[in-house]
Amino acid sequence: MKLLYTSFCITALLVLTTAGCRKYLDIVPDNVATIDNAFKMRADAEKYLFTCYNNLPQFGNEGADPGFLTGDEFATVYPVLGNINGSLYRIARGEQNIVSPIANYWDGKYFQALRECNIFLENIDKVRDLTDFEKKRWVAEVKFLKAYYHYTLVRMYGPIPIIKNNLPISASAEQVKVKRQHVDSVFNYTVSLIDEAAADLPVILPNEFSELGRITKPIALAIKAEILTTAASPLYNGNQNYANFRNKDNEALFSSTVSPAKWERAAQACREAITACEANGHRLYEFVPRSVTTKVSDSTQRLMSIRAAVTDKWNVELIWGASNSTGGGGRGFQSLSQARLSPFTGTIPNESIGSMLAPPLHIAEMFYSHNGVPIEEDKTYPYGTRFTALRKALKSERYYIKQGYTTVQLNFDREPRFYADLGFDGGIWFGQGKNDDDNTWVLEGKLGQTGGRQGASLYSVTGYWPKKLANYNNTINDPAQQYNVEGYPFPIMRLADLYLLYAEALNESNGPSAEVYGWIDKVRARAGLKGVVESWTKHSSKPSKFSSKEGLREIIQRERLIELVFEGKRFWDLRRWRVAENYLQRSVNGWDIAQREAINYYRVKPIYMSSFSLKDYFWPISENSLIVNPNLVQNPGW
């Protein structure tokens, strides 16, 4: 915070070097001596605009996306041996601290991003050769980015200082010692910025080829809906745990009374966003093979409609994608998600396949049964023997599991999203150069098999893989295991996410209704499931669960956790729902991957004990920042 609060009259540009796959994200001001020079001409000002974009999170990056490896969706080798950035994984393992906080964004990136946005807004009128249309659009983009950086900070830290303007160099010592603002004030300011921005943002990109990833009006409205839904959620809306959380002048930072109006406001924002997105051509993705050589069954086509909704780049469901994070090159999230599928030559496998992001058993358990209800509720699912019963896959199951292959009950009789999103021992892995249902890869994950543990670190520690994140168009150079990646923008917001936000806001504001069921059922239908009412009535041991607000809340939350798994949403959702301690304080388990025989491999083995307590809902501010600025107060529990 010292850099932020001392002087905002900057005489040299700070240049970020965050990599981006789109040309506009690769341009930053170079060799510019002063702010005045940066805003003399359009070309230089455009570079500064793209510098403001460069501060966006690297979504899906295990070391840079604070919602990706921080929760309980993945386990990995620990201590990390250099093949994966494990800094955020340390938070999941309970190693966060106040002396040198892990992922210390308070003292770094996002307040710097806000300062750069303010510099842009304060100087854009100086540009000589900029049209009024361009200026309005650029200002709108930066206002949105400024809002998004405030939102990013409030999700991590709760009450934050609102950075409306940069302080002048003449500011007094007391002026620079800012204090935290009430969370409602932060959310309201953030939304007001988006409202201002939306009025001047284009509905569609004027030049789609070169501008993909830049902000449009539908993106702004969709993120506004997410922000207002977050603000209405229990963590921020009448949270009694923070009733005594106050600034040093005794100013409250949280309201202790729940406001139903926040849910109504969120529902309205979701409705407006859905209308705008659908009018702009967004719809739930359905897989259509790119090539006539791609031969798929109806079962596989459904699996690919689920999987490729994320990996088919710039598809019709994607509202906002991260151009600066595509999972390509080096040890990106696609390599880390990919299982080894083909035999390799030589003594060690090619390291282009990382294979280190490992979903734990509780993520595999999370998916529904083939009847579309939780396996612990399904009246016919053998839940008690899910970890112990072994059987061979039947011919009718051949598009999910290799016919005749022995695997555990947990991998049988599951919904299509289970098979689309997860790789597992004996599971079919469509794509990666084999796009014919009669000739597909089979993942064999036990010790000594192709996908099993090999080497010191490049393997799944649980026996599951996040297949969802690996583009099916990536190819494996068989038998050398050379992995060729086709990048795609990591999804920040897609239509299914927005539908489920709307269902949640409607249920919280007015309770169960046919309209609420309808929005959930749209997502379930793409996944090959019957509607909520039919599924629970026929198959659940809690057949009336959907008829109460509390029961439907559980259903909606489970639906979000399943549909958006591995997309960086779960960590934030569990926090805003104020249920994280129920999920993130547990034994994280996998299979006994050091075994060669199924009877021994399918034994539950603890990987580590995840850690989460009340204090972890918000990350700590470093002790040094509290010393530098005595007007700041620490987050509760730290």
Descriptive report:
By secondary structure, the chain is mainly α. Among the domains are: 298-316 and 326-488, no CATH class; 494-585, Serine Threonine Protein Phosphatase 5, Tetratricopeptide repeat (Alpha Horseshoe). It is built from 24 helices and 12 strands. Helix 7 (132-157) packs antiparallel against helix 9. 51% of the residues are buried.
Task: Give me some keywords for this one.
638 residues; mainly alpha; Serine Threonine Protein Phosphatase 5, Tetratricopeptide repeat; two-stranded antiparallel ribbon; two-stranded antiparallel sheet; 12 strands; globular; disordered N terminus; SusD-like_N; Putative outer membrane starch-binding protein; SusD_RagB_dom; cell outer membrane; membrane
Strand content: 5-15%
- Overall pLDDT, averaged? 92
Shape descriptor: globular
Q: Which percent range fits the helix content?
A: 25-40%
Strand order of the largest sheet: 1-10
> DSSP helix count?
24
> How far is the first residue's CA from the last residue's CA?
18 Å
Gyration radius over CA? 25 Å
